[in-house]
């Protein structure tokens, strides 16, 4: 009888652990995806759709392939090494982790200023409060998440529900916009023109900078690591790209439907005009919800991930990492109130984040072949080749963009 009870207890324990893992895996997926889906994401997608029309579908397709190649490699290496990215980089070359952390912090702060501004704009659309007041209110909401005892679970649920809300509302706007689906499908594979700036910006805005590490570090914090978890980790990394890409695709189709009707998007706020032109005042209110949800989840993801890059450098930083997250949000809010969030700056930072990616991914690929980091783990050759191609392509396109195309934005 005691043996049966013991067996029953083990079965229940395994079931609870499996259920818990599913929640954490879904949380990591949505944390990464909603970190990518921020104000810059919304702005970039609508601006490039207006410029490239249906051919923007090809840009999205290429960016998805590059995103998967980058993220699947990075998440697996973090999991098998059981270390955060900055510690892996320091093991590859002493001091490299500090440099990587510095780059992530700069990019994360720049994006978070825009995220806070986007949240303020969402509040403005919904309730008529000033964007600065809305930004402060949103910052308080984000800070509250990290002050609760089980901040990790709260963060997981928060990003999941708001991610679902964003996708649902944008799907409605696609339906009202009635985009030319046939043309979009054809030009996704046979584009009329190819824009390197758009590709670099999309990849940089999806897996560049801190974003691709959001889910990987979240899984590590939740104890999902080691070779036994690689299948789950790989599936989650691809699923996260899928969620972010679904939102990108829906927003592209909504904007395409508006542009195809000959309507002009408002340069001051391109994504807002898409929702308003497609679905009237109801659509505009939907935009307020989507913008706030996209921005506030990105605030959470940016703050959490950026601080995860420095918390291992000293025991004091580890002890007070929640306080550091709060401080990061406070600084971002303070800067927004006095500086603002210009559209061109968001595109520029997205392109710069595309340069961070080849550096961080290159470091991860080197680490994958160091036994002192990954033990007896054998990294799949095809993933190394895939990742190497992403590093080379993003390095070339990133440098080309910075030298030749970015200056044109500010003329």
Automatic annotation (TrEMBL):
GO molecular function, a single term: manganese ion transmembrane transporter activity
KW Transmembrane helix (keyword) present: yes
Keyword terms of this UniProt record: Membrane, Transmembrane, Transmembrane helix
Membrane topology field: Multi-pass membrane protein
Transmembrane domains' residue ranges: 21-42, 54-75, 96-113, 125-148, 160-177, 197-220, 241-264, 284-310, 322-340, 346-369, 381-403
Localization: Membrane
Signal peptide limits: none
GO biological process annotation, one example: iron ion transmembrane transport
A single Gene Ontology CC term: plasma membrane
Protein known as: Mn2+/Fe2+ NRAMP family transporter
Organism listed in the record: Thermaerobacillus caldiproteolyticus
């Amino acid at each position: 009888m005691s043996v049966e009870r013991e067996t029953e207890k083990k079965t229940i324990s395994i079931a609870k652990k499996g259920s818990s893992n599913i929640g954490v895996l879904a949380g990591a997926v949505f944390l990464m995806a909603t970190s990518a889906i921020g104000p810059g994401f919304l702005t970039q997608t609508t601006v490039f759709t207006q410029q490239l029309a249906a051919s923007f579908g090809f840009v999205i397709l290429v960016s998805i392939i590059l995103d998967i190649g980058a993220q699947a490699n990075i998440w697996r290496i973090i999991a098998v090494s059981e270390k955060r990215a900055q510690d892996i980089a320091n093991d590859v070359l002493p001091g490299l982790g500090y440099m990587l952390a510095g780059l992530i912090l700069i990019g994360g702060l720049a994006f978070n200023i825009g995220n806070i501004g986007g949240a303020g704009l969402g509040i403005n659309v919904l309730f008529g409060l000033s964007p600065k007041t809305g930004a402060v209110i949103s910052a308080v909401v984000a800070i509250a998440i990290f002050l609760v005892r089980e901040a990790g679970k709260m963060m997981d649920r928060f990003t999941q529900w708001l991610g679902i809300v964003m996708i649902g509302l944008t799907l409605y706007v696609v339906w009202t916009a009635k985009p030319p689906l046939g043309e979009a499908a054809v030009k996704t594979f046979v584009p009329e023109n190819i824009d390197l700036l758009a590709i670099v910006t999309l990849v940089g805005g999806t897996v560049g900078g801190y974003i691709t590490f959001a889910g990987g570090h979240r899984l590590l914090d939740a104890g999902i690591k080691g070779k036994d978890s690689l299948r789950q980790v790989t599936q989650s990394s691809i699923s996260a790209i899928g969620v972010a890409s679904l939102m990108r695709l829906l927003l592209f189709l909504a904007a395409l439907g508006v542009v195809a009707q000959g309507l002009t998007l408002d340069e001051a706020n391109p994504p807002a005009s898409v929702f308003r032109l497609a679905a009237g005042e109801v659509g505009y209110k939907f935009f307020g919800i989507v913008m706030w949800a996209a921005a506030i989840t990105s605030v959470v993801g940016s703050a959490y991930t950026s601080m995860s890059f420095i918390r291992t450098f000293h025991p004091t930083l580890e002890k007070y990492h929640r306080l550091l997250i709060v401080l990061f949000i406070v600084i971002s809010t303070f800067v927004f109130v006095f500086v603002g969030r210009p559209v061109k700056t968001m595109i520029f930072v997205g392109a710069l984040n595309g340069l961070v990616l080849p550096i961080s991914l290159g470091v991860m690929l080197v680490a994958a072949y160091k036994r002192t980091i990954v033990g007896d783990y054998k990294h799949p050759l095809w993933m190394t080749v895939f990742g190497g191609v992403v590093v080379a392509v993003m390095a070339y396109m990133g440098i080309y963009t910075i030298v030749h195309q970015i200056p044109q934005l500010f003329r």
